[in-house]
Design brief:
The complex is a heterodimer.
Chain A (H helix, E strand, L loop, with lengths): L16 H5 L15 E7 L5 E7 L1 H4 L4 E6 L34 E2 L5 E7 L2 H8 L3 E6 L6 H5 L13 E7 L2 H9 L3 E9 L11 E7 L4 E6 L4 H12 L7 E4 L15 H13 L3 E4 L2 H7 L6 E9 L5 E13 L26 E10 L13 H19 L3 H8 L8 E2 L5 E2 L4 H12 L4 H10 L3 E10 L7 H7 L7 E7 L5 E5 L8 H13 L6 E5 L16 H27 L7 E4 L2 E4 L5 E3 H9 L14 E6 L8 E11 L4 E12 L6 H21 L30 E4 L17 H18 L13 H11 L1 H4 L2
Chain B lengths: L4 E3 L4 H9 L4 E4 L5 H6 L7 E4 L9 E4 L2 E5 L4 H6 L1 H6 L1 H8 L4 H6 L2 H7 L6 H8 L2 E4 L3 E3 H4 E3 L2 E2 L7 E7 L3 E8 L6 E10 L2 E7 L7 E2 L1 H9 L24 H17 L3
Parallel strand pairs in B: 1-3, 2-3
Antiparallel strand pairs in B: 4-5, 5-10, 6-7, 6-10, 8-9, 11-12, 12-13, 13-14
Chain lengths: 791, 265
C-alpha cells in the first residue's frame, strides 16, 4: 500500500467515529421496542443474609406495575461458569449454584432479589420500594483470610469458602533449588481490587414474539453468540434458532461485558410472561455493585538467585478473590491467565505457583483488561526490582542478565506456554532511549532543588493474548473452544460485507478490519462494511476479549478472503479462458500471467452473480465465503514501560512526569488505533497504581460505591505519553500480529510503583501498596522516617 | 426522584412566600447538591422553589472596599469577574477551582453557602475574609453563620440574597483535593486585613469549617510560613475517612496553611 493509503500500516481515521462523535451511536439503551416496558431490579442491601420472605403484594398492585418476580418464581437454570479448574488433588472446583434472582440467601450487596416490571422505569422503581424483604442477617466474610478461616460460609452446601486449591510446577524440586540459592528475595504483593466502570452502563432489552416463538435479547455484550449459548442452553432452555442476541454499539467493556449476567436472563425470561418487550438499564450506582470487579489477589513470592543475579527459581503463593459466585471466566483468570505468565521475559528455569480461589461476600470478580497477566506482571516486576536492590545490581542489568535471548525462540517456559517470538533487549534499549533515561539524574536534581523526590521505575513485561488455541485451553479446562469465525460476502457490484464474530466496543474494528480487506482485495474503504454483534447476521463468534480480535478474528477474515480469492480466480479463469493456475491477483485485478488479459475484482463479482455460462458441475454461482480460524498458539506481546514520578514528601502526592511505553504488539495494522489502545491501557494501569481501589467495610458494604470515593483517572492525572512500538512478528499467524488492547494496563502498574519506591528509597520507604494515594504515600513516609513526615 | 411541585418565582418575596406556603418545600439554587440527592431518592421535598428566575439575586458589585456577590451568581461568573479578580484575586481563584466547568456554570455562591457542605470551598473564604451573609430578613456575619455539618444560622424558609466580602490586604486559598471527588480534603484560606490575620479551614473539621486561632495569632505577629510550621490542629477534632485519617488531615492543614501564607497576594 502506498503512503496515505488505507491498507496495512496506514493510520486511517476511524470510520465509526463519525457516528460516535455526533451522538448517533446505537447503544442498547437507545433501542426502544413497540409497547416496551421497564424493569427495575431490587438488590440486596446486605452482604450476607437469609431471605426469610419477600412480600411483593403491595408492589404488584402499585400504579403501572405489570409483574413482580422473585427467585421463587424463576425456575430456570443458574448462570453457568465457562471454565473448570481442578484442585491439585484432582478434584473439580466447587461450583455453587448462581440463580439469576437470589433463592434462600443473598451473598453480596447488589445480589438481585426481585424484578419489578412496569409501564415506566419510575413506576418500577417506586413499586420496588414497596417490596418488603425480611432479611436474616448473617456475618459476612469480606477478607480472603477470614473466608479461608471459615468465619462464615458463603455457600453452605459446599462446606468451605475454598473454591479450588490449584498448583502448577513441582514444589519439591523448587524447594531444593531455593535451598541451594546464593540469595533469595521475598516480597508480599497485593493486587488491588478494581471496579471496571465502562462509560456505558450495562443494559438489556428482552423481547418475545408469540407468533414465531422467537426471543430477542439486545444487550451490552462483548460476545453475543456466547451469551446466546450460555443463556439459551444453560439458563432458559431456548434453542439457538429461536434466540437472537444482538450487541449493538457498546460503550466500553474492558472485560466486564464478557460475562452472562442475571439481568439478561431475567428480561428474556420475563418477556413472554409479561407479553411485552422489557428494558432494563443499569444506573451507575448499581453498576458498582453488579458489574464483575477485577484483580484482587494477595500473594507471597520469592526468587532464588545465583551470585550473578541469575534467576534460578520462582515460588509464588496466591489467594484470589472470586467474590460471591463464579462469574463466567473467573476460575481461569488467576490460574491459566496468571500463573502461566510467571516466567515473564526471563529464563527462570523453575517456577511453582499455588493458587487458592476463595469465595467472599463481595461482587463476583472476573477478567478485567489484562485478566491475570497484570497480576502476574505486577508481582514479577516488583519482585525483580527488589531482587536488583538486594543484589546491588542496576534495574536494567538484572533484567538484561535474565532476558530470554532473542535467538532462543521458540522458547518453552516451565509454566506451559511456548513463546514464538520477541526481542526484550530491543524493546528495553528503545524505551531507554525514548525516555531519555540518560537525563534522569539531572531531572532528579532539579526536582530535589524544588523539594520534590524523583524516581524512575521499569517494567519489562510479557503477556499472552490472542486467546486462544482451542486444544490448549481445552486441556486447561475451558468448556468452549476459542476460535473465531468470519464471513466475507462479496456483493454483485464488488462491494464487500465482512461478518465477524469479534465484537467492537470501542476498539475500532470497523476500521482495522476494513484495512485488511483493502490490503487483500484491493478495494477502497468506501466499498467495505464490517458487521458484527448480531447472531442473526454473523454465523458464529466467540467475541472480543483477551486482545484476540485481530490475532484470531482478523485471521478468520484473512482465511475467508483467501477462499474468496480462490473462488474468484476460478471464475476469472473460466471467463478469461485460462488455466486457474495462471491467474494472478494483485491490487484488485485478476490477470492471466504474462498477458494483458485481466478482470477487475468488481467484474469477477458481477460474473459470480450473473453466471450465464458457468459450468455448473465445476463452478457454483456466488462469491460468499466463510471461515473458522483456530489459532495455533497464544500470541505474546511484550515490551518495556518506564515511568518517572515526582513525589511531594510534604503531602504524599505522586505525579507521573514521564511515561514511556515501547511495546512489541507484532505487525501494526493501524498505528493511530494502536497508539490509542496503548494510551487507554496506560491510563487504566496508572489508574490502578495511583488512584483506583475498591474498598469494602467489615460488613461487606461497598465504601467506594460512587465516584465520590472510587477514584477514576482523569486526563490531568497523566503526562503526555510516549508510546511507541518495536516489533517482532508473530510466528504463527499470517498477519504477524500479536495484540495491543491490554499491554498498557498490563505493563504499567509495576513501572509506576517501582518509580515511587525509587523516589522514596533513600527516605526509608522500600515498599508501596496500590493505589499509592497521597495518604498511603504519606503514611509510608511517616512510618519510615517520622522526622520527614512531621516536617 | 420523587414527584414534587415546582415553582419558579421572579422575586425574593414570591420565593419566600412559595416556600412558606409549602408543606415541606426547599429552595433550589444551582442544584449541584440537591438534584443528585433527589435523583438518588435521598430527599423527598413536597415543593421545589427554583431561584433561577429572580434577577435581583444575580450579579457582582464592588462598592468601596466591599465586594457583594448575588446569591445566584455562579462560581464561573465569580471566577471570570474582572472586579473580583482585581479586588480579591484569591476569591476568584477559589471559585475557579470548584468542581468542574459544568458545576461552575450551574453552582452558585448562595447555594454553596446555604448548604454548608463540610468540604465546600466558599465557607472557608467567608470565614477568613469576614464576609457578611445577607438574607431576606437580616445580615449575619460569617463567624455566626456556619453552625455545623450542613447546618447554618438560616431559619426555616429564610433565604440568602447576597454575600459581601470586605477587601483584604492580602489573601490566598490552598486546597488539597480529595483524589476521587475533588472536593476539598483540606482547604485553607488565609486573609490579612486591617484587623489582623484570619485562617479558616474547610474539608477537615468534624463540625465543618473552622478558624485556627493559634495560627492567626502566630501570623499576626509574623506573617510567614515559618511562623506556623509547628502549629497543628488537634486531630481529635477532625474527620477521618478512607481518603484521609484525622492525623493526615491535621498534617495537611499545616502544610496547606504554610503554602497559603507563602502564596498571599
Amino acid at each position: 500500500m502506498p503512503e496515505g493509503g488505507t491498507g496495512i500500516g496506514a493510520a486511517v481515521k476511524r470510520v465509526e467515529d463519525k457516528r460516535f462523535l455526533t451522538g448517533r451511536g446505537n447503544y442498547t439503551d437507545d433501542i426502544n421496542r413497540p409497547n416496551q416496558t421497564y424493569a427495575y431490579i431490587l438488590r440486596s442491601s446486605h452482604a450476607h443474609a437469609t431471605l426469610n420472605s419477600v412480600d411483593t403484594g403491595a408492589a404488584t398492585s402499585a400504579p403501572g406495575v405489570l409483574a413482580v418476580f422473585t427467585g421463587a418464581d424463576m425456575e430456570t437454570g443458574g448462570l453457568p461458569c465457562g471454565w473448570q479448574v481442578h484442585s491439585k488433588d484432582g478434584s473439580p472446583m466447587h461450583e455453587p449454584p448462581h440463580p439469576p434472582l437470589a433463592k434462600g440467601k443473598v451473598r453480596h450487596v447488589g445480589d438481585p432479589v426481585a424484578v419489578v416490571i412496569a409501564e415506566t422505569y419510575a413506576q418500577a422503581k417506586d413499586a420496588a420500594e414497596l417490596i418488603a424483604v425480611d432479611y436474616g442477617e448473617l456475618p459476612a466474610v469480606v477478607h480472603m483470610n477470614d473466608a479461608l478461616a471459615g468465619k462464615s460460609l458463603v455457600h453452605d452446601e459446599i462446606g468451605t469458602n475454598l473454591c479450588y486449591d490449584w498448583e502448577i510446577g513441582d514444589e519439591a524440586q523448587i524447594d531444593e533449588a531455593f535451598a541451594k540459592a546464593h540469595h533469595v528475595t521475598e516480597i508480599d504483593i497485593v493486587n488491588n481490587r478494581l471496579i471496571p466502570n465502562a462509560m456505558e452502563p450495562r443494559a438489556a432489552v428482552g423481547e418475545y414474539d408469540r407468533s414465531t416463538d422467537e426471543y430477542t435479547l439486545f444487550t451490552t455484550s462483548q460476545n453475543p453468540h456466547v451469551i446466546r449459548l450460555l443463556m439459551g442452553a444453560f439458563v432458559l432452555s431456548i434453542p439457538e434458532h429461536k434466540l437472537r442476541v444482538v450487541a449493538p454499539d457498546v460503550g466500553g467493556g474492558f472485560g466486564s461485558k464478557i460475562y452472562h449476567y442475571a439481568e439478561e436472563a431475567i428480561v428474556t425470561w420475563a418477556a413472554p410472561r409479561v407479553g411485552r418487550p422489557i428494558k432494563w438499564t443499569c444506573d451507575r450506582s448499581d453498576a458498582f455493585i453488579s458489574d464483575a470487579h477485577g484483580r484482587d489477589h494477595i500473594s507471597k513470592a520469592k526468587m532464588a538467585m545465583d551470585s550473578e543475579g541469575k534467576f534460578l527459581a520462582l515460588k509464588v503463593e496466591t489467594k484470589a478473590n472470586m467474590g460471591a459466585y463464579l462469574s463466567t471466566f473467573a476460575p481461569c483468570v488467576p490460574t491459566y491467565l496468571y500463573a502461566t505468565l510467571l516466567a515473564g521475559v526471563y529464563s527462570t528455569p523453575l517456577i511453582y505457583c499455588n493458587v487458592k480461589a476463595i469465595f467472599t461476600n463481595t461482587v463476583p470478580v472476573d477478567a478485567y483488561r489484562g485478566a491475570g497477566r497484570p497480576e502476574a506482571t505486577y508481582l514479577l516486576e516488583r519482585l525483580v526490582a527488589k531482587c536488583a536492590r538486594e543484589m546491588g545490581m542496576s534495574q536494567t542489568d538484572i533484567r538484561r542478565a535474565n532476558f530470554i535471548p532473542a535467538d532462543a525462540f521458540p522458547y518453552q517456559t516451565p509454566v506451559a506456554l511456548q513463546y514464538d517470538s520477541g526481542n526484550y533487549t530491543a524493546t528495553l534499549d528503545k524505551a531507554e532511549s525514548v525516555h531519555d533515561v540518560a537525563g534522569f539524574e539531572a531531572r532528579r536534581k532539579e526536582s530535589e532543588a524544588r523539594g520534590k523526590r524523583r524516581g524512575i521505575g521499569y517494567s519489562t513485561y510479557l503477556e499472552a493474548c490472542g486467546i486462544a488455541p482451542s486444544a490448549v485451553v481445552g486441556s486447561l479446562g475451558a468448556r468452549a473452544g476459542l476460535y473465531e469465525s468470519a464471513e466475507v460476502r462479496v456483493h454483485p457490484t464488488g462491494s464487500v460485507t465482512v461478518f465477524t464474530g469479534s465484537h467492537s466496543h470501542g476498539q475500532g474494528h470497523e476500521t482495522t478490519f476494513a484495512q485488511l480487506v483493502c490490503e487483500r482485495l484491493g478495494l477502497p474503504m468506501s466499498n467495505i462494511e464490517i458487521s458484527h454483534g448480531d447472531t442473526n447476521k454473523v454465523q458464529f463468534g466467540m467475541g472480543t476479549y483477551g486482545s484476540r480480535s485481530l490475532a484470531v478474528g482478523g485471521e478468520a477474515i484473512m482465511k475467508a478472503m483467501d477462499k474468496v480469492v480462490n473462488k474468484a480466480k476460478k471464475i476469472a479463469a473460466h471467463i478469461l479462458e485460462a488455466s486457474e493456475s495462471d491467474i494472478e491477483f494483485k491490487d484488485g485485478t485478476f490477470t492471466v500471467a504474462g498477458t494483458d488479459r485481466s478482470m477487475a475484482f468488481g467484474e469477477v463479482a458481477l460474473a459470480a452473480y450473473v453466471p450465464h455460462n458457468f459450468p455448473h458441475d465445476e463452478l457454483e454461482p456466488g462469491l460468499d465465503e466463510k471461515a473458522f480460524y483456530d489459532p495455533l498458539n497464544f500470541t505474546f506481546p511484550g515490551g518495556c514501560h518506564i515511568c518517572e514520578v515526582e513525589v511531594d514528601p510534604d503531602t504524599g502526592v505522586v505525579s507521573v512526569q514521564r511515561m514511556t511505553a515501547v511495546d512489541d504488539v507484532g505487525r501494526v495494522i493501524n498505528p493511530m488505533i494502536v497508539e490509542g489502545q496503548i494510551h487507554g491501557g496506560l491510563a487504566q494501569g496508572i489508574g490502578q497504581a495511583l488512584l483506583e481501589g475498591c474498598v469494602y467495610d467489615a460488613d461487606g458494604q461497598l465504601v467506594t460505591g460512587s465516584y465520590m470515593d472510587y477514584c477514576m483517572p482523569r486526563a490531568d492525572n497523566f503526562p503526555s505519553f510516549s508510546a511507541g512500538t518495536e516489533i517482532t512478528l508473530c510466528a504463527h499467524n499470517s498477519l504477524g500480529v500479536k495484540g495491543c488492547g491490554e499491554v498498557g494496563a498490563i505493563g504499567s502498574p509495576p513501572a509506576v510503583i517501582n518509580a515511587v519506591v525509587d523516589a522514596l528509597w533513600d527516605l526509608g520507604v522500600h515498599d508501596m501498596p496500590m493505589p499509592a494515594s497521597p495518604q498511603t504515600v504519606w503514611k509510608a513516609l511517616k512510618a519510615a522516617s517520622p522526622a520527614v513526615a512531621a516536617e | 426522584m420523587y414527584d414534587f411541585a415546582y415553582h419558579k418565582p421572579s422575586s425574593v418575596a414570591d420565593a419566600v412566600a412559595a416556600r412558606s406556603g409549602a408543606e415541606d418545600g426547599t429552595f433550589v439554587a444551582g442544584g449541584m447538591t440537591l438534584v443528585p440527592t433527589l435523583k438518588q431518592r435521598l430527599a423527598q421535598p413536597s415543593d421545589l422553589v427554583d431561584l433561577g428566575g429572580i434577577g435581583e439575586l444575580h450579579g457582582i458589585t464592588v462598592s468601596g472596599d466591599t465586594v457583594t456577590i448575588g446569591a445566584m451568581t455562579t462560581h464561573g461568573a465569580v471566577a471570570k469577574s474582572a472586579e473580583v479578580q482585581s479586588a480579591i484575586p484569591a476569591l476568584a481563584a477559589l471559585a475557579g477551582g470548584i468542581g468542574d466547568p459544568q458545576v461552575r456554570n450551574r453552582g452558585t455562591i448562595g447555594g454553596s453557602v446555604a448548604n454548608n457542605d463540610p468540604a465546600a470551598d466558599y465557607p472557608a473564604a467567608c470565614m477568613a475574609l469576614g464576609a457578611t451573609i445577607k438574607t431576606d430578613k437580616r445580615e449575619v456575619p460569617a463567624d455566626e453563620f456556619f453552625t455545623g455539618l450542613f447546618e447554618t444560622a438560616l431559619d426555616e424558609g429564610e433565604m440568602i440574597v447576597s454575600v459581601s466580602f470586605p477587601k483584604p490586604e492580602k489573601a490566598a486559598y490552598q486546597k488539597f483535593i480529595n483524589p476521587a471527588s475533588r472536593y476539598a480534603l483540606v482547604g485553607v484560606f488565609v486573609a490579612k486585613t486591617g484587623g489582623g490575620v484570619k485562617v479558616a479551614v474547610t474539608g477537615a473539621g468534624q463540625d465543618g469549617v473552622f478558624r485556627v486561632p493559634e495560627m492567626e495569632s502566630a501570623l499576626s505577629s509574623n506573617l510567614s510560613a515559618d511562623a506556623i510550621a509547628d502549629v497543628a490542629v488537634d486531630a481529635d477534632t477532625l474527620n477521618s475517612d478512607i481518603h484521609a485519617s484525622a492525623e493526615y488531615r491535621s498534617h495537611l492543614i499545616t502544610v496547606m496553611a504554610k503554602r497559603a501564607v507563602a502564596a498571599l497576594s
